[in-house]
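ESCALATION

Customer reports they have been waiting on this structure for their group meeting. Please prioritize. Original submission:
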Amino acid sequence: MVLWVIRILFLLLCTTAGYAISQVQPDLVGGRLYGTLIGFGLGGLLIAVDELVKGLSLRAFSAATFGLVLGNLIALLLDRSGLFDWVDPPTHWLIRLGLFLSFSYLGMVLAMRSNKEDFYLIIPFVRFMPHKQAENLLVLDTSVIIDGRIAELIEGSFVEGIVVVPRFVLRELQDIADSDDPLRRARGRHGLEVLSRIQRNTRNEVKIHEADFPEETAVDAKLVRLARLLDAKLFTNDYNLGKVAELQHVRYVNVHQLAASLKSALLPGEELSLRIVREGKEKGQGVAYLNDGTMVVVNNAQTLIGQQVQARVLSLHQTGSGVLVFAELKSS
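Update from on-call: job pushed to the front of the queue and completed.
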């Protein structure tokens, strides 16, 4: 709405300027009516061009400008080479017009179709930031958004920086939320709620990155490529994605591994206060859980399901999914 108000004011300004020019230089525009119409037409043309290129990003515009300059430079070199000095002036003018139009078009198209990473090697884009202040960019993948713990890390100021959510990750999240499978749909909607929660946090800026890599079909490959391009840190729960990122020298954080490293270390002989929730596999065993989800198997606690007990750690057993703790009831 505000944009259209500005456009209307600009159109009125152009119309008034055309009328004013017709008063100062009536011979230039052919009278008041023509001057007013020319001003109105020029303003309308610029607004129409603005509407046509509203989806054009600054980087695409920079690429088009570079291609235009490069195309004109090639056309100028050909024109000054002396290849067309033998033709008469009218034909020479037509050849020059064809050269500049053709190479300008080809330069713009090739620059806009080129890989952005290749284009950055020719003209590095300037980032607007305070002097000597580096941007700390955090690229989130789908798994870490659905997991939700990244929101708690951000809210607790354990993770600081500009949160970057690629558009293709957002599309994948929306596809999961629209799935026919109730479990997938619930996970997708939870991920969208986590994103909304992160956006509400004023400590970290959240940006939706529009970059895409059509030549890459897998989302993981796009994530690694984008993180490398932005020199950002990739946050994920996918072990394989983390290893691929490591092989390509991309910084990454696996939230699962981070949580595992922060778990409290239990030692044999340590006393625990536990609530027995169910019976174990072996006869007489009861099962309890620590706050971090670690399973504790307590001997002779099968009859104490639903009760709070005091237990002493006997041993710890490392499994593929974590640590399994064996304990016995503390004698009173």
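Sent to customer with the following note: The radius of gyration is 33 Å.
Escalation resolved.
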